[in-house]
Amino acid sequence: MSLRDISIQINNAEKIGITYHVSPDGDAVGSALGLLNGLRFLGKDVYLISKDIISDSLRYLKSSEEGDGETIVPTKDTDMVIVLDCGSFERISADLKKFKGEIVNIDHHITNDHYGDINYVDPKAAATAEIVFELLEFLGIDFNEKTETTLDVGTCLYTSIVTDTGAFRHSNVTFRTHTIAARLKKIGVNNTFIYTSLFDNKSFNKMKLIGRALTDMELLLDNKVAIIQITESLVKDLGLLNHDTSDIISFALQIKGVEIAVLIKEAEDGAKASLRSKNNFDVRKIAESLGGGGHIKAAGVKIKDVTIKQAREKIIEAIESAMN
Ligand SMILES: [Mn+2]
User: Fold this and answer.
1) Residues 52 and 150 in one domain
2) Residue 127 alpha carbon to ligand 1 centre in Å
3) What is the DSSP letter of 238?
4) CA–centroid distance, residue 164 to ligand 1 (Å)
5) Could you tell me the distance, in angstroms and rounded to a whole number, from the CA of residue 157 to the centre of ligand 1?
6) Measured distance CA(95)–CA(83) in Å, rounded
7) What is the pLDDT of residue 247?
8) Domain stops at, among 176, 199, 222
9) Which residues of the chain have pLDDT under 70?
10) 15 CA → ligand 1 middle, Å
């Protein structure tokens, strides 16, 4: 179904829930709140469904307080749920098992399994927010006009784009990405404020964790692979349970000659690993060989019932065989 047709379906819906993937990142939250605020401005009855509590670093987005982790099931009168930035039914931050209405799945993950009644998956979109921007235009939001609404919505969508493009540095950035960003800039979206809120906003202890993690980082396999390990005791020492580590792993990729960065985090029942690659090395394959998944340049895996040391051995082995 085309985006224009989807906009007509949305216009026909009476009550709409909007949700995203579990542990929502800046794209998930920005896309959802951008759509929510836009639809609300257009007079639609719309609300957020979220098992997750939206992280503090995204609280500057309008209506983010509605992501309080308390609305999990759609209300009885909901006839449509729009799921954004989520590749599979299992990963939705909502319980839709008993939902009888229409599920609209809008996403940019190439691995999306088309779980919706309506599916719109565009892997060329750097962020799901690019699709939401176009959808909102079809719905009647005029992004040429500077209003309180376009500014609020624009701040949400710009946040998504900055998040999923690594602040415009990744290879997923296209002409469309910059065009949308430029149009949002033109109506007054504050790129510096967004960047600062997202990245220059760390707690002192988070910075210490980065320091300790980097101190013990190792280079392996001809200095092409950087490995960072984070133990539970280190995280507990610094009072940083459930913190995000995506910014730590990106430091490892900044090293000259490093092709693959690995971050292994000790968990209660095993270890979680994130993998990133700088050029074209497919880390998704490595993650998949260990039971995980993701994208070519960013993937993850959870390995159960292992020590962090054993997890490290398994991952190195998998990388070694993938490199040969
Ligand atoms: Mn995304």
Assistant:
1) yes
2) 5
3) T
4) 6
5) 11
6) 12
7) 80
8) 199
9) 242
10) 25
